[in-house]
């Protein structure tokens, strides 16, 4: 026990300290100009935690972190601290760090099923906000394995299925949740939305199936009409496979020729021209036709050239009262023009009688349709360019002959 003299000395010292405190200003007090900044350094009042906690710069935070991650504490306490840490990151919308904290909490393998279910559900929420829908759904499933009646996990699982457009599964999640709490507004809203979207998706699927069936029927009818007319479609060259049966025995059962005639993709020119051949209600074919003018490097495109129409019908429209601006010499008059087509297999040129219908030209054995679009070369008869054009193509010029 201290002697009275010692006690008096102690009291005298306190009195001296208090007197000094009154006359000397406290140096570590918050400054009026930066009190918000100083407040943000105190862990309790921080709005966001720093990315890296430096023990020198943030000793208080480092101390708290060491408490959270103290491995000597029971797993349940450690898991709860990590859950709280994850929740703080979640509030800051730092979902990646929240996931790291929740994952660390789950690795503690605590025996508290409620806490484990919350960790899984919270991690599912963080994954959901990051767009990791599959991971969020897996965590919701894991939460229910730990605690089947965990309502938040059921709601999150239903939301994930909705975003993944698996409406049947979303309905199942909702129904299981409503068995636990029939009046839950969130589940009732989710179920209503899922049911509407499921019915809409089924309706769209039926429409798509019917549309595809109609399209296949129309293409079949179209191909039948082309085959009936004897029009050839040029099939793209397929790579030769060495050692095939047909090469070994030299046999050909006619399958290749039949496929060339019925080649579906040979009709499709929509990507290049925006149009393709079609069959009208009267049973007539309308072809997209390309006219080439090599002298001026120009083209004309007729999106629907009826097979029963003649070439002169279209030339009279294209080169009628108004001639194209690129024809500066004003010589492209219908009566002066010659039309040719090329045999793509032999590269021979043939002249077309402009009074002939498109159908009669396409039915010729030497004519075939490439990429779904018949094409024709137009030249001015007797022009210097016409003579030069054929002089540069001597082989073709020798084989050039008018059609009967």
Automatic annotation (TrEMBL):
Listed transmembrane segments: none
A Pfam family that the UniProt record links to this protein: Wheel
Keywords annotated in UniProt: Repeat, TPR repeat
A molecular function (GO) term: Hsp90 protein binding
Disordered: region residues: 195-219, 234-254
CDD domains, per the entry: CTWD_Cns1
One of the record's GO cellular component terms: nucleus
GO biological process: protein folding
Domain Cns1/TTC4 wheel: 280-384
Keyword rRNA-binding: no
Comp. bias (Basic and acidic residues): 195-207
Keyword match Repeat: yes
Family per record: Belongs to the TTC4 family.
Name of the protein this chain belongs to: Cns1/TTC4 wheel domain-containing protein
Organism whose genome encodes this protein: Electrophorus electricus (Electric eel)
């Amino acid at each position: 026990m201290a002697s009275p003299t010692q006690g008096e000395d102690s009291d005298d010292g306190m009195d001296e300290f208090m007197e000094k405190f009154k006359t000397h200003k406290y140096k570590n007090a918050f400054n009026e100009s930066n009190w918000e900044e100083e407040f943000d350094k105190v862990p309790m009042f921080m709005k966001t935690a720093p990315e890296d906690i430096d023990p020198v710069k943030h000793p208080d935070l480092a101390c708290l972190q060491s408490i959270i991650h103290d491995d000597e504490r029971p797993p349940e306490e450690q898991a709860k601290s990590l859950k709280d840490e994850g929740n703080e990151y979640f509030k800051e919308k730092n979902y990646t760090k929240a996931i790291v904290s929740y994952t660390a909490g789950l690795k503690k393998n605590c025996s508290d099923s409620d806490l484990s279910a919350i960790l899984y559900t919270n991690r599912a929420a963080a994954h959901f906000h990051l767009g990791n829908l599959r991971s969020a759904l897996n965590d919701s499933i894991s939460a229910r394995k730990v605690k089947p009646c965990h309502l938040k996990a059921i709601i999150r699982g239903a939301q994930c299925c909705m975003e993944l457009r698996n409406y049947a599964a979303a309905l199942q999640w909702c129904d299981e949740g409503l068995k636990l709490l029939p009046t839950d507004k969130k589940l009732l809203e989710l179920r209503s939305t899922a049911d509407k979207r499921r019915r809409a998706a089924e309706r769209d699927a039926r429409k798509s199936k019917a549309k595809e069936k109609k399209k296949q029927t129309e293409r079949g009818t179209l191909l039948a009409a082309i085959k009936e007319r004897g029009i050839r479609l040029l099939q793209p060259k397929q790579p030769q496979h060495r050692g095939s049966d047909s090469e070994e025995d030299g046999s050909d059962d006619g399958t290749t020729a039949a496929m060339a005639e019925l080649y579906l993709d040979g009709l499709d020119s929509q990507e290049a021209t925006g149009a393709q051949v079609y069959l009208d209600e009267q049973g007539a074919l309308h072809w997209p036709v390309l006219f080439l003018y090599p002298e001026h490097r120009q083209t004309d495109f007729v999106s629907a050239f009826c097979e029963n129409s003649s070439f002169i019908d279209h030339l009279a429209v294209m080169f009628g009262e108004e001639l194209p601006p690129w024809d500066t010499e004003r010589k492209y008059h219908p009566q002066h023009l010659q039309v040719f087509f090329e045999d793509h297999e032999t590269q021979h040129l043939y002249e077309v009688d402009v009074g002939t219908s498109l159908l009669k030209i396409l039915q010729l054995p030497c004519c075939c349709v490439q990429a779904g679009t018949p094409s024709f070369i137009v030249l001015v008869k007797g022009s210097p360019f016409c003579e030069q054009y054929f002089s540069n193509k001597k082989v073709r010029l020798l084989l050039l002959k008018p059609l009967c």
